[in-house]
Structure formats: structure tokens, C-alpha cells
# Entry
Amino acid sequence: MTGNSSKLHLDNATLSLFRDVNTSTVISVIYMLVTIINWVGNGLSMWLLLFRTSPKTPSIIFMINLTLTDLALGSALPFQIDYQLQGYNWRLGSNMCSFMTLVFYGNMYCSILTMMAIGIDRYLGIMKPMRFRKSKKRKSVAVISCLLMWGLVLGVLYPLMTTDLTYKVPELQITTCFDVLKLSMLPSVGAWAAFLFSMVFLLFLFPFCVTMFCYVSVIYKLSSDSKTVQKGRAIRLAVVVLLVFVLCFAPNNILLLAHSVLRLFYGKSLYMAYKLSLCFSCLNSCLDPFIYYFASKDFRQKLREIMNIQSLSSADSIRMENKETLYSG
# Structure
């Protein structure tokens, strides 16, 4: 985001961003690739989760929620691609701009919270398996948790729903969408600080710390036990999840905080870097199916069984069921 006062003219750094055709083209190409992979990967995952996976454990419910958020982002990206290719010129009106922005950021933060929930579910399933499996309300808790996640995200992002996020740039004869924010969007600098604090610390840093704790604890627990193939696979999956969490979301939120502080208090900008980091954060939406499903040998076996590519022996089926019982929660 870039804060802007009621001045009639933008600074040179912001104008240079809007004139940079190469950056806009690179971002558009990345969004195109993400959209294609997103639709294919998450569409297949949703079909498998809804119609080929039973029972619906809490982990599966969280994965369905995560896949829904990814598909929502995939539906919004074509509008962002058109916006970029038109030279940052939004042609669909202020209401559509607010809605697409809400979908875009809602996906990011709901994905972060859902990944935290999956981490907690795995942590409880491995660290306290007996007490965890005796609970009869796990599915209800998972559904309520998903609803609370969305409620929290929408509550924090409420200013985006009630503000005109478009801005006419007379120098370039374009109308931007969320690339120039008026300081009048919020009543005071304190309100801006609370808004940014909620986004960066409540919706990113806290879930990040919880996710780190859960997966590091799981890795330590499994690595300290006798080593088996399935435990090694679980450890590798946890490491990959943490890496993607750090690489996709951390740069964007750190740059958001740094850019906002520099813009509000020092009149400087890191918006070019933030814009690129926001673009790469979308990669998570097409990596989720590979991390949670296709990286798993069990899921590949299920996929082959469904598509009649390879029949599973009874021994393979028994091993697969045992692994699912241990790690799917």
C-alpha cells in the first residue's frame, strides 16, 4: 500500500511505478501462470477432498477451507491481470475494486490462519494422540474455527470494504485500484497504526509463530523416535510447509510494515519491492495442493487408484490406512 494525502500530484517514485511497463508485464505473466496452476491444482484437490476423501477429519475440513480461499484468489487474479496490462487503469468501478481487494488480501490472511490451524491439528495429533482422538467435537470445532478465521479477517479488513479504493491520476489519465490510498481512509495516524498492526502482527506474525512452534515440535518429536519411512516423510513435509510459509508470506508482510512506516512518517517508499512481494505471495495458492497432497505418497496412491492408473495391493492399502490414521488426525 502507499499512503497518499489530499495532494493533487503523486510523488515521482509512485509515478515511475505506474510508468514501468516491464515490471507490470512481469507481474502480469506471474499472475497468469499462478491462475492456471491455481485452477487446475485446487480444482482437482477440491474434487478429491469433497467426493473422494472420507471421513472428513478436522485436517480435511481445514484443507477444504484452504482450497476454497485459493480458488477465490484464482477467480480474482484475471481482474488483476487486466488491470496490470491496462497500465494500472481500473475500469470496473469503486465497488468492484473494493471487492477484488478484499478477496485478494482475504485469501492471504485466511490462508495463513488456516495453515496455523492445520499445524495445531497436526501438533495435537502427534504430541497428544490419545486425548486428541477421544474428543467427539473435533469436526464441530474445525468448522467453527474456519468461521472464526473468516470473521477475524473480515473484521480487520473492514476499512477496505467501506472505502473508495480507486484514485484518479491526472498526470497519466488512469484510475488506480488500491495502489494509492488516501490518508482520509482512516480518521487518524493512530487508526492507521492499529490497522497495520492488526494486519502484520495479528494476521501474520502471531500465526507464523504458532505455526513455527507446532511444526518444529512435530519435527523434534518424530526425529527423536525410531526412524521410519513414514516419519521421514512427515518431517520433510513439515519442513516444506515452513519454508513456503516463510518465503511466500514473510517478505510481503515485512515490506508492508516497513513501507507503511516510511510513507507515513518519513515520506519515503518501498512500494516497488512491496508490489513484487505481493505478487510472489500469490504463489502459495498454487503450491498448497502440492504441499499438502501431491507431496504425500499416500495421496498419489489414492489418485492412481481413482484414475485406475495403478491398482493397489491389499498390503499397500493397509499401510496407507495405517499412515492416515497416524498422521491425518
Observations:
- The chain has one domain: 3-295.
